[in-house]
Amino acid sequence: MRRAKIVLGMLGVVGVCVGAQRICAQAAERGKRVVIAASAVFDGKGNLVRDTRIVVVGGKIVGLDAGAGPVDYDLRGLTVMPGWIDAHAHITWNFGKDGKNAGMAGTSQEDAYQSASNAWVTLMAGFTTIQSPGAVNDIPLRDAIAKGLLPGPRILTAVEPLIGQGEKSGTAEEIRAFVRKQKEAGADVIKIFASQSIRQGGGMTLSQEQLNAACDEAKKQGLRTMVHAYKDAVRAATLAGCTEIEHGTLATDDDLKLMAEKGTYLDPQAGLIIENYLLHKEQYVGTPGYTEEGFAAMEKILAKNHELMRHAVKTPRLKIVFGTDAVAGAHGRNAEEFIDRVQDCGQDPMQAMMCANSIGAEAMNLGDQIGSIAPGLQADIIALDGDPLKDITAVRRVVFVMKGGIVYKNVARGAIPVYAGVQP
Questions:
Q1: ∠ at Cα 67 (64, 72), nearest 5°?
Q2: Does the global pTM surpass 0.90?
Q3: CA 287, CA 63: separation in Å to the nearest integer?
């Protein structure tokens, strides 16, 4: 088993190296015209376009023209759609040399290699944009990918999170100063912990006044807020005008209706995060924040997460995004969350795709850049070997990945088995 993990890690690093060479090879050709033939295209907004060709120039989509040619990539027989957006992943969260959870604070060369590998397998899984909130280590990885030095998804990060500790969190003005500090440090979004971990009961850790100050200051600084919130903190964060609620477990139907009224986005986790912890229990238990009691709580809370998702999809006008909270062990398996949402929670498959496309882009204020297949947007395009509307497990079979006009993956249909995990 250990040898298999080592081989998988090596493949990830090899993939990064190959991907870097591919960047160099294709960057010089980025300005050329590329034509993609497709028989089934999800436009990211809930529409299906048949028998068309996507024209890309300079890394952007310039049109959909059934008569365009010559064809550079023939994706007919596949399901084509915008690259997916994961609204909540922790890309620098790794297992250490001892195989145990090392979190996301590592600064060694090994940590850097592992994080680069995480970025590669996430991109290979079809995720061309992720939001990775709460680690200073995210910044150099974000910037390296943006400069084309490493292959990986586009990354938005929060740098340091505001961790609720009651009065110890500071006065309203001190919290405002903290928000301004994060902007100066290069944050794309402000991450706020308004609740304890669900493993500790999920109690509220910030007052209404403190939440009001944090979210108001972020708006003044032109930044969005994503709030880790359970139970009562969901309503409090919504009333504070925060942008997005993370998790939301144990929120009431009235809370969900209020979110819909206020236009607050919900990022629920339907399964992957808890399933990943349980799968890798021995690598987590005994590390900071992970106890046997905490794992017992997680086993019980999975059903509550499913229940929240079922209620959320039935709440009119509630804007739901796709986030996995992917940590060590889950990178490259982000798409499993689609399967949980559809099979365990009853979400419509096309709606699930939209959560990871146009709705996710809108939540990040990037709707004019990503999340749809339309002229003027980034050429973030993926293709699945299968139809997720008929078989949601098709999300495991990503055979084509283009990000910003550069193709990082193009394998033969049938090359990925019916069940596939991380694809290096």
A1: 75
A2: yes
A3: 51
Using DSSP's 3-state secondary structure scheme, residue 399 falls into strand
Tell me the per-residue pLDDT of 34-71, one tens digit each, with 9 for 90 and over. 999 999 999 999 999 999 999 999 999 999 999 999 99
> Do 103 and 93 form a contact (C-beta atoms < 8 A)?
yes
3-class DSSP assignment, residue 94 = strand
3-class SS of residue 238: helix
353 HSE (CA, 13 A, CB side): 29
Locate 190 and state its tokens.
């402000």
Helix (H, G, I), strand (E, B) or coil at 169: coil
**How does DSSP assign 109-161, residue by residue?**
HHHHHHHHHHHHHHHHTTEEEEEE-S-TTHHHHHHHHHTTSS---EEEE-SS-
Q: How many CA atoms lie within 13 A of 79 on its CB side?
A: 22
Beta bridge partners of 54: 36, 64
- Helices 172-184 and 208-220 cross at an angle (nearest 10°) of 40
pLDDT digits (tens, 9 = 90+) for 346-399: 999 999 999 999 999 999 999 999 999 999 999 999 999 999 999 999 999 999
Q: 248 near 266, Cβ under 8 Å?
A: yes
SS3 labels along 215-232 = HHHHHHCCCEEEEEECCH
DSSP 17-82: HHHHHHHHHHHTTTTSEEEEEEEEEE-SSS-EEEEEEEEEETTEEEEE-TT--S-SEE-TTSEEEE
Torsion on CA atoms 342, 238, 250, 257, rounded to nearest 10: -60
Contact (CB, 8 A) for 117 and 9: yes
Inter-residue contact 145 to 152 (CB < 8 Å) = yes
Angle between helices 292-313 and 272-279 in degrees, nearest 10? 160
Q: What is the DSSP letter of 341?
A: I
Alpha-carbon distance 34 to 73, whole Å?
8
